[in-house]
Design a protein that fits this description.
The complex is a heterodimer of chains A (277) and B (706). Chain A has helices spanning 2-20, 22-30, 41-46, 58-64, 67-100, 106-117, 125-135, 141-166, 170-177, 182-193, 195-211, 214-219, 228-237, 241-270. Chain A has 14 helices and no strands. Chain B has 706 residues and is mainly α. Classes of the chains: A mainly alpha (277), B mainly alpha (706).
Amino acid sequence: MKRFYYVLIQIILILSIVILLLPVLWVVLISFYSKDVMRTIFSDILQGKLHFANLTLSNYLYILTDPNFLRWVLNSTIVAVSVAFVSTFIGFMAGYGISRYQFPGRRPFLISLLVTQLFPIAMMIVPFLVIMSILGLIGTLQGLSLAYLATTLPFSIWILKGFFDTVPHDIEEAAEVDGATLLQSIGYVLIPISRPALATSFIFSFVTCWNEYAISFVFLSDVSLYTLPPGIKSMLDNNDLAGFAAAVVLVSIPVVLLFMSIRKELVESVTLGSVKE
Amino acid sequence: MNFFVKKYSFSNSQRLFWGAFLALFLIFFALFIHVWLFTNSVESFKTEMKITSLINTSKLIYDKYSNELPASLEETGKSKGKSWLSAYEEEGQSSGFDLFGEKKAQPGKEVKKTESTKFRDFSFVLGYIITNYGLPMDETELLNKDLWSVEVIKGDKLIASSDLGSLDSGKISIKNLFRIKKDSTENNFTVEERDRGFFIGHDKVKKCYTFKDEDLTVGVGYIERPFVFPYTSLIIYFILSLILAFAFIPIKFLPEKLRLYVGLVLIVIVGFVIYSAYSSYMDYTIYSKTEEVKPFINDLFKSMYDKGLVESKAEFSEYLSKDVGDIKSVSFNSSDGTFEINLNSLNYYKNLFFTSFIILYLSVFLLSIWIFYYTLKGGFESWLNALYNYSVVYTFIILALLLVFILIGVPFIFTIIMSFTSLSRYLSDLNLARQFVGFYNYQDILNIHHILAMIGFEKSKEIVESSPFFVRNFGNFYQVLINTFLYTFFSVIIQITLGILFAVILNDNKVKFRGIYQVLLILPWVIPTYISALLWKEALGQYGVFKQLFDSIGLEGFNIYANGTVYFLSICFVSAWYAFPFVMIVTLSGLQGISESVKDAALIDGAGWFKTLFSIYLPLIRPTLLPSVLLSSIWTFNNFNIVYLYTGGNDAYDILITRIYDFISRPDLRVFTYGYAAAYSALVFVILLIYILSFAKVTKLTERTY
């Protein structure tokens, strides 16, 4: 009886995972087949018409030689890396300051940071569009990066503040006793031990920018300036399912790996420590 | 640790000086902001008056002579490739632009005409006006010349144009760039009111107004004025408030009780002087700008009269006073020989400028009075002391503080301000002052007739049915609100069910390959959301994997779009598909915190699977689960990517966030979208705030750490 129960559990798990992940399986599969079998690939497999010998890498070759796609990857990388770097750097300083010192204005600042995380990015598009067009930054990657910074910065500050809360004061005090200045103790002591938190903040900011669609679609009108999300959407609009499938797989893999590596820290950070026992 | 050092301690005269300086500079700053907006607004107001009079004149000509137009306008296409200047020369206007002399076109050079001569005459009038009042030859002329081109279009045929070359070739230059770019596939909307677009036709892109009637389109291209920022005047205001602040120092000789009141009275007096001076300045400027339009109107009438296009002044001024779309016209009196501006009709614009100024000024004024009071009581010193004592911390957080203020605070405040204006999408000018509309946007969004019509009031239904296109199809805020809540509710239910079920199953030590399953089940959460949405859209679509799956097991005719409810639930499901791993991870970590003895006790008592779940697990993990449910419901509420990309922006399945996005990204929907969308955003903000606060209150989440 007990044994039957566990076999049943296994079957249910496998079945439900297959159904839930069917679109993902499908897109990975079609990215390896030639264009003409795309639309009927699944029924072909079920009926045994399709053979693994027909596997091809042509979709990947096609997408990797497409100048537009490479341009989008470059744009996305530039925006995401620069935003992630700036937001982690500023988040590190602010997180350290907020965590270590009590000062007037600390509480309202923290509450405002919390509140900003709860509101959708689409709400900020209108003022951003107006402000950026006054500054002449509309349609440029710089303007887009500024808009993204607004969304990633509060979270970076929050993650790093939460991390420094868990690091005991004694570490810096020991460094101070040894004669280190504040900057030295930050450079030689704090940065090395806060590497995981810095990585979390960097990866989260990177992935947020890498995945953002709404703002980039409105901000960028020039196809050569597109980032990946509007670019990939435009491939689908052009009925380019083969290119879409290959692009989706290529674009998702780094994100999935990065997110998988920090998922524990991420869940802890977004639930603001309430998950911790 | 260190203790608070009182480095700064002000004497009475210092306090008076700083208080007065801060208060006065704030007042001057408000003045500066309004002067900045006003001077720019009033310039484009002038241009707008010219544009509306040209549009109204075109309407007059069309109403009078449209019967003279041939039934079908044939394309002539004779003088392609010629510049419009050379086209004029061919018409016999070689010596300058003396279009109204008696010269007739030379017979041999005559270009084939198919249009009615009245409209051709009108084209000459337009060409004359444009050469006199538009088309600047260099940068210095920009201030006086602002028009670029006029085109009158019936259906899709050009019937009159200030550019004879394009009239003969039939080439229409006024187009709406936005529409061409993003809505080429669904260009089947009719814009009922005025539309602002761009004008293509020269080396630089100019702005234009297009007015559309049922069958008449008038486009006026104009040259956009550079937005001037008078930063030098800010320095003057700074010095002025410094000087004035010195005058406050003698107050210290007064008895202590009187000081505050005398200072306040002085500030009020200064404020009032500034107010009255600026009011009369505004009055004068508006008047003088309209005076500058007068010769234009007179010239327009004279040339029309000379050509015999219009018989009387009364007829002309009647048409001039008509409103163009939502622009109120300024009417003209034609009493003694020339046209004079009717000062009463200017009042509408004056009121707009004055109301916006009074609101801005009053609020800043109250703030500055508070600052004066606060500084006298020693508040300014305490700020300086805090800055001095915590200088290390503030250097750490100053960058973050500034960036958060600039990138989040300013846009937020700006949204609130914009929601009280009718700011248009094309941002040809940032006339927040002139476009001030009070609570009109909110009134429009919260239109009570929509809710009454939904309940079933016949009268409200009629009102909604007879309202303009936009209100009829996109104005129902309540419907979207209900949709959003239904969508959030169902999606969260699915998330919680899936998440808890998988968590409980995976929490069982005896289930094999738990690690693999867990990684696979987290995948939906880590795949980029825009990709998930597009993926599900394709997978459930016509050629998608689910269609193939159902076909192969014999269930032909699977169509997710066939039934509205099913499609709606599929949106909820896709959104839940993305979010359930988060609930699962949180529940799992909560379940792992439950000690083995509790589980054993439940087993010994003979509790079944469901009983254990509902009576033991769920109550125990409640403190960790509830905040996550709150978070994930907010994310679901805000999940733009999934809903927008999965539905492809389908208006019937909009949630609040995607509706806002529609207003911004679809230029065909409405003219004054930015103000409207800002008001929508502000309402969504309020709704979210109410939701978060009430959720926190109901579930007693208030002890959350921060």
